[in-house]
């Protein structure tokens, strides 16, 4: 619940800690405001929470990191190799990396981090993903070898999301190797101290204080008064940011970002199943107008899901142009003539679903006006976030607007957004049957579970797939452990990808391309496939990509060297200065 009364604001400010009320500058600490409390400073528990993940970037290091082209490169590791079947990954650690306790990092720390995730007592939300790791071998103090039960193409990304943690006594503050060390962790404040032995060089500031300030108005007041020095992508409305740019004590850094705003279509809708209609609706949108007005210039136009900085970006893919006359012609060609020219009657009417918060309602209003200008009616529907995502998950929409965060920094996003998952009404039955088969001990338990799973798969509640059909046919001719393996492989193909394919987009050839790219270790071959995928999406338009939102940092003018990269990561804090 937001608090607006001045008395309530004062209570919040003082509740956040005595240091917040006793010093407007934070003393020798640079004070950073975040919009919610971190769920856990333990990366094995909190990596799926955005605030926690940002703090982890300050305290821990990962074996690999992304470079400026979003390629995985060594970080704690000085080198790594991956087997052709994506089952064996070998990491050679940099020698002499110091932990926060002062000793050298070893491969034993790597082994402990990722093996401990499997502990049922820990209840890690990432246990299932890392469950694909069979063993972690440490032939020497600087070598860690991951042996996986199955191809694990996403391992490098998962290792980046869950960095290496140093084992410490229960209840102790977390230890890592990162540029800052946790010295105090409360519910509303986290204190970090510079790690002088950091292997990339000691930070320029001696301390960071992270304060939890959920209310936007309070964060704005604290920045203006000096109680907070930095707010990084903290959810300020674009017009609020524009207003703060005029404050003589503040600076606003508006840097290119990668989070992508888009409109998705239910491609099974009677009207929207036609790609001509979807292309027409894309051409009817004046994105520049929305960026200039609603977004206050804090975005750049997007013509595809990948950001231009990515090694996998296709600069030659067709661009979206604002051309309402061309949109009208396409709609005519698709069999939807305007019944009364420029009169009030519509060619057809569709729903447009958004959340009821932030800029979404204003964007919905402009989209409604722009589509109306080409003869398309819009029923705008706005919901609380829980209801909104429930409707997206069940395809209970005609079209929707959303901003996707982070997924497009790797080409894995093609599998996430466009691979056809299992969409039948019995998806929960499928998941339960697969879990039962996976957990079954012995043929007496496995055989009925396999039969149950096969019966669900035979209903074919999925997009046609030659590979999937082959796996299921193969399973029918097998028995025992071989049948179990084939069926679970089929289920993995159906359920481990496509979580972001809310559009129910089904293109078997594109799905095969996604798998080919995943399994290839030839960068030029992968790039050729990814370009082909992007050209297909640009033609078929299951989504309209609108803009990449900017990385917006509001800071006191005493803070220098703010150099955030497009990923929006907090790594730049290692190099900031304060006066």
Note poorly predicted spans.
Answer: 1-26
Mean pLDDT: 92
Strand order of the largest sheet: 8-9-10-1-11-19-12
Q: Give the class from helix and strand content and strand pairing.
A: alpha+beta
The percentage helix is: 25-40%
Total domains: 4
CATH overall fold name of the largest domain: Dipeptide-binding Protein, domain 3
The CATH architecture name of the largest domain reads Roll
For this structure, what is the CATH class of the largest domain? Answer: Alpha Beta
* Global geometry: globular
The CATH superfamily title of the largest domain: Dipeptide-binding Protein, Domain 3
What would you say this structure looks like, in words?
With 579 residues, this protein is of the alpha+beta class. The radius of gyration is 26 Å and the shape is globular. The protein is 36% helix and 20% strand. The protein folds into 4 domains: 148 residues, 3-Layer(aba) Sandwich (D-Maltodextrin-Binding Protein, domain 2), CATH 3.40.190.10; 98 residues, Dipeptide-binding Protein, domain 1, CATH 3.90.76; 166 residues, Dipeptide-binding Protein, domain 3 (Roll), CATH 3.10.105; 69 residues, no CATH class. Helix 10 runs antiparallel to helix 12 and helix 16 packs antiparallel against helix 19. The strands form 5 sheets. The protein has a 7-stranded mixed sheet, sandwiched between helices. Strands 14-18-13-17-15-16 form a 6-stranded mixed sheet. Strands 4-5-7-6 form a 4-stranded antiparallel sheet, with helices on one face. The chain has 21 helices and 21 strands.
